[in-house]
From TrEMBL:
The keyword DNA-binding is annotated on this UniProt entry: no
Record-linked InterPro entries: HATPase_C_sf (IPR036890), HATPase_dom (IPR003594), TCS_sensor_his_kinase (IPR050428)
BP GO annotations: phosphorelay signal transduction system
GO cellular component: plasma membrane
Recorded catalytic activity of this chain's protein: ATP + protein L-histidine = ADP + protein N-phospho-L-histidine
Pfam families from the UniProt entry: HATPase_c
Species: Streptomyces tubercidicus
GO molecular function list: protein histidine kinase activity
Protein name: histidine kinase
């Protein structure tokens, strides 16, 4: 039988062992709780970071979508507009965070590819349109030249004043239509369409004036020292340019105001200066005009505006092809001053006025008067004639030997002169023609015109009194 002390000892031992086991279990449980809490904190932090990253990705995705919508809805339309009008700016990115990023590079690549595609397509379409217009204007221009020739023949065929006036009006209208067609064709790359001979610069300017309405308002002042002429290949192009500049001056100034043309001669060429007293041009307009007149860039028909303005554009095309220059600037009279500079070496020459006299319609040059030989010192006068020699025996009659005027030594910068051989008899006749005609009094001029009118009227009266033998005009 177990005693009570032993039982108590066993109980205490068992309790102590249980307490040790419970303590160990408690410590293990505490450690597990701490470990779980650490893992939970790490998981919460990771979850928070994941949520933050997802938020940033979502925001960046939305920003990228916004950039794409901005590209499609704003930047591309503005780019197409900027290609037609360079002053229109193209917007940039909406979000500055995309600057220099892969997204920015990709969007810029899209813009460049679209720009190149639009530019090439515009050039292709414009070239096709210019080709069509060039072909049409060439045909119409040829027909208008034929009509001009027919009208001029009719002017010589019919002497009825009313018919002649109608023919002159029709010829003038045809000339204006020809000018428009010619300028349009030049803008589209066509040849001016007319070959002319070497022509005096003064005659060229007067001819350009006659192509325009309001030509009576144009005053031409000829300040050329020499009888300067334009070489054949550049006559019509320069006439077109002067005509277009004059058309602008007449159109943009009051119809009662004059337009002044001054012909100036320099050391290396000649200039045609056109001054008007009109409304003038703003600095932007002058800048745009100078860009067209420079002729450095390929011109598109869509750049001519609506309605198309082809004057400066045609001048720029001819400047690039023939080598002369055109400059526009504000005029000191408040309008616009246009200067056509013609270099002397390739485009100018000096004609012999005795062999090819200038038209009476051309303005006379304001040249310096010839020195009075009577005031020259005696040493400078011609030497006294030598005693006459004995007459030579009669021989065969001398043939009119061809005379050649030796060219004078050309000074540096002087314009080239053209001379020709001509017989002595022609030299005498030309010398007689070059003698200045005595000035006529107003009474003598009036008497001559009255005699001409009386003769014309008497001839027409005689023709009307007789039975008509043939229809009016020449049937050929």
């Amino acid at each position: 039988m177990t005693s009570i002390p032993e039982a108590l000892l066993w109980c205490l031992s068992a309790g102590t062992a249980a307490a040790v086991v419970l303590a160990a279990l408690s410590i293990r449980a505490r450690r597990q709780r701490v470990d779980l809490r650490t893992r939970l904190s790490a998981a919460e932090e990771q979850n928070s970071a994941t949520l933050h990253s997802n938020t940033e990705l979502t925001a960046r995705l939305r920003a990228t979508e916004a950039e794409i919508r901005h590209l499609a809805g704003t930047r591309l339309p503005e780019l197409t507009l900027a290609l037609a009008h360079p002053h229109v700016p193209v917007p940039g990115l909406l979000d500055a965070r995309f600057a220099a990023s892969e997204t920015d590079q990709a969007l810029n690549s899209v813009l460049e590819q679209v720009s190149d595609a639009i530019t090439k397509e515009r050039a292709r379409v414009d070239a096709a349109a210019q080709s069509t217009v060039r072909g049409a204007t060439t045909t119409i221009q040829a027909l208008l030249y034929q009509l001009q020739s027919a009208l001029q023949e009719m002017q010589h065929r019919y002497d009825d004043p009313n018919v002649a006036q109608d023919l002159l009006n029709a010829d003038f209208l045809n000339e204006q239509a020809l000018r428009r067609i010619q300028a349009t064709g030049v803008v589209c790359g066509a040849w001016p369409g007319l070959t002319r001979e070497d022509s005096y610069l003064a005659e060229l300017v007067v001819g350009a004036t006659s192509r325009l309405r309001g030509y009576e308002r144009v005053n031409v002042s000829n300040q050329l020292r020499d009888p300067i002429a334009v070489v054949a290949r550049a006559v019509e192009p320069i006439a077109i340019v002067v005509t277009e500049l004059l058309a602008n001056a007449l159109h943009h100034s009051h119809r009662e105001l004059p337009v002044t043309i001054t012909l100036q001669q320099g050391n290396r060429g000649a200039s045609v200066i056109v001054d008007d007293y009109g409304v003038g041009m703003h600095s932007d307009e002058i800048k745009a005009a100078m860009e067209l007149l420079a002729g450095d860039q390929d011109l598109l028909l869509t750049q001519l505006g609506d309605p198309p303005r082809s004057g400066f554009a045609a001048a720029g095309q001819l400047v690039r092809q023939y080598g002369f220059g055109v400059h526009v600037e504000p005029s000191p009279y408040g309008g616009v001053r246009a200067v056509v500079y013609i270099p002397g070496d390739p485009l100018l020459t000096v004609l012999d006025e005795s062999a090819q006299p200038m038209s009476v319609m051309a303005p006379q040059p304001h040249r310096a008067a010839a020195p009075d030989r009577s005031t020259m010192p005696a040493q400078a006068a011609a030497p006294a004639p030598a005693p006459a020699a004995e007459p030579a025996p009669a021989t065969q009659p001398a043939q009119p030997a061809a005379s050649y005027e030796a060219p004078a030594p050309q000074a540096e910068g002087e314009l080239p002169r053209r001379r020709r051989r001509k017989p002595a008899s022609e030299l005498d006749e030309s010398a007689a023609r070059t003698e200045p005609a005595p000035p006529r009094s107003p009474e003598e001029t009036g008497t001559r015109w009255a005699a001409l009118q009386r003769g014309t009227e008497s001839g027409r009266a005689a023709a009307q009194s007789e039975p008509p033998r043939s229809p009016e005009g020449n049937s050929q």
